[in-house]
Amino acid sequence: MLARVRTDAGACGMSLSSWLADAADERLRLQGLRLVVEDWEAAHGVITADELHAFEARVAAANLEQASEAARHLRDLAQRLQSDREPSAAMRVTDLMAALEESVKAAKERRAMPSKPADDPTDPRHRKAAS
């Protein structure tokens, strides 16, 4: 396992100790979140699949709005770089903007697809709420 961690740390441009610190930080964050959810469920009842789906939809909408805003900023930056006679930098920013806009478009198309009903046993949210 250590060899895999070292390889991943190197691929991320991190030292082994930085990678381990990030992993520990993530684990502590997840434990804290788990405690918050357990406390909330103890006071209000188990989170249902419908509630989880509604929350996921709100998060997805917020993420799409942030991505769309980022694409607008990239478009402005590309225009400024072009006017400053930095065509190679402008092209890289334009490529990044196009990739981001394509991701946003694909995510919006996925959101437009009908979702599985909350009681569909093949929906992973159903299994989580039922357990």
Describe this structure in words.
The protein folds into 2 domains: 1-45; 48-131. It has 131 residues and is mostly helical. Helix 1 crosses helix 2, helix 3 runs antiparallel to helix 4 and helix 3 (49-83) packs across helix 5. The protein is flat and about 60 Å long. The chain is built from 5 helices and no strands.
Kindly summarize this structure in a few lines.
With 131 residues, this protein is mostly helical.
What structural keywords apply?
about 130 residues; mainly alpha; flat; disordered C terminus
Count the E strands: 0
How does the helix and strand content classify structurally?
mainly alpha
Q: Provide the residue-averaged pLDDT.
A: 82
* Spans where pLDDT lies below 50 across 5 or more residues: 125-131
Number of helices in the DSSP assignment: 5
Order of helices and strands: HHHHH
Query: What is the approximate shape?
Result: flat
What is the strand content?
under 5%
Task: Round the Cα radius of gyration to an integer and report it.
Answer: 21 Å
Count of folded domains: 2
Q: Biggest β-sheet: count, sense, barrel?
A: none
Distance linking N and C termini: 31 Å
Q: What is the helical fraction, as a range of percent?
A: over 70%
